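Weekly structure sync, notes
Attendees: PL (lead), two postdocs, one rotation student
Agenda item 3: pending single-chain targets
PL asked that the sequence for the first pending target be pasted directly into the notes so everyone works from the same version. It is reproduced below exactly as submitted, 226 residues in total.
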Amino acid sequence: MTARIGVVTFPGSLDDRDTQRAIRLAGAEPVALWHKDKDLKQVDAVVLCGGFSYGDYLRAGAIARFSPVMEPLLEQARAGLPVLGICNGFQILTEAHLLPGTMLRNDHLHFICRDQKLRVENAETAWTTDYSAGQEIHIPLKNNDGQYVADERTLDELEAEGRVAFRYLDFNPNGSQRDIAGVTNAAGNVVGLMPHPEHAVEPLIGTGRTDGLPFFTSILKKLVNA
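Predicted structure, written out during the meeting:
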């Protein structure tokens, strides 16, 4: 049976179709989920994609966090459902307290769009097993509110528990504390990051590399082998 991975579309989502294509290229079946759905349609995993849900009013992700689809998602994520938050999806996961910390406006106060070098810090989550710890990859980045912040105690806990999933290399594009580009929850089923792996799955687009595809092949292998 083909693994089914849901992709949630909120008002203002931009990258839902790109994410669905990445899932399809990895060999899984993408399932469109609407923000008003209260049923996850029995999917095996969920991706919250990038964009500007609800126009980023109040704070990025603050309104989307209360969308009807988030109620079953929160419940199932806490029970082990794999969830990936990309850019705005990462912001939503922090607002929903599935991941620690929060996202602020970039420290230079400008939108940024560039190919970004990252280091994989944790290759044991549901979404990163096709990487190697310490591997350096290039993933497109585009955000306005991408500065990851948390109190020092939380940052120390993330470091000590190996929950920093990705770190910016060579250049910190938004002022994120400790160069953090992505984090995971303690169980490893929920991961969030600001760069966009769905834009790095084919040589013809994005960075011209396929460094983002292992996100989607990792979860497919986990689901198939479960």
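Discussion points:
- The chain is about 20% helix and 25% strand.
- The longest strand covers residues 112-120.
Action: rotation student to compare against the earlier draft before next sync.
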